[in-house]
């Protein structure tokens, strides 16, 4: 079954088996429609996929809708940051399906998609910056960024730190340091 949509999309049945995919999904994930049909979306999981979060996402979908950002894996084994929104839908005869639409997120978006890191930059650091003198805030921000670098695609933290800082008010502290 082919879905016509620009987003990478799949449809799951109640047993969480893939019953339809679109060409955007096959390009993103590397699996053909024939390889995906009848499979579980778990075929995209790998060593860095947070399976606990994936299970919580599936449960939330059963109740209505949910959005998640996970590290998933293409058929060739390469990881990617996958932002997925899924919702429960009914067909004309009342059967339940789950429509999932996803996209790959890159760079700063990838970092922001990680809720822990986003909270760190958007909640914790502004509080820290307000409480510390500018130079100490800059040092603390750099220290936090160095610990976040394993979650930053490409390993480049500096540019993203400044960009994120602009959105948190920390840029004023950085500029005055």
Automatic annotation (TrEMBL):
It holds the Pfam family PAS_9. Residues 10-98 form the PAS domain. InterPro entries: PAS, PAS-like_dom_sf. SUPFAM superfamilies: PYP-like sensor domain (PAS domain). CDD domains: PAS (cd00130). Transmembrane segments: none annotated. NCBIfam families: sensory_box. This is PAS domain-containing protein.
């Amino acid at each position: 079954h082919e879905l016509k949509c620009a987003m990478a999309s799949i449809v799951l049945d109640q047993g969480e088996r893939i019953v339809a995919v679109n060409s955007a999904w096959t390009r993103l994930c590397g699996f053909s429609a024939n390889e995906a049909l009848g499979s579980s979306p778990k075929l995209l999981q790998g060593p860095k996929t947070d399976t606990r979060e994936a299970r919580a996402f599936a449960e939330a979908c059963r109740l209505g809708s949910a959005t998640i950002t996970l590290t998933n894996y293409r058929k060739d084994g390469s990881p990617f940051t996958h932002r997925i929104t899924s919702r429960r839908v009914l067909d004309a005869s009342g059967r339940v399906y789950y429509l999932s639409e996803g996209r790959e997120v890159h760079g700063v978006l990838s970092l922001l998609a990680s809720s822990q890191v986003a909270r760190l930059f958007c909640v914790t650091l502004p509080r820290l910056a307000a409480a510390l003198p500018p130079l100490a805030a800059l040092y603390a921000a750099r220290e936090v960024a160095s610990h976040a670098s394993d979650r930053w695609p490409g390993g480049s933290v500096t540019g993203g730190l400044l960009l994120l800082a602009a959105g948190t008010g920390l840029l004023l502290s950085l500029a005055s340091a």
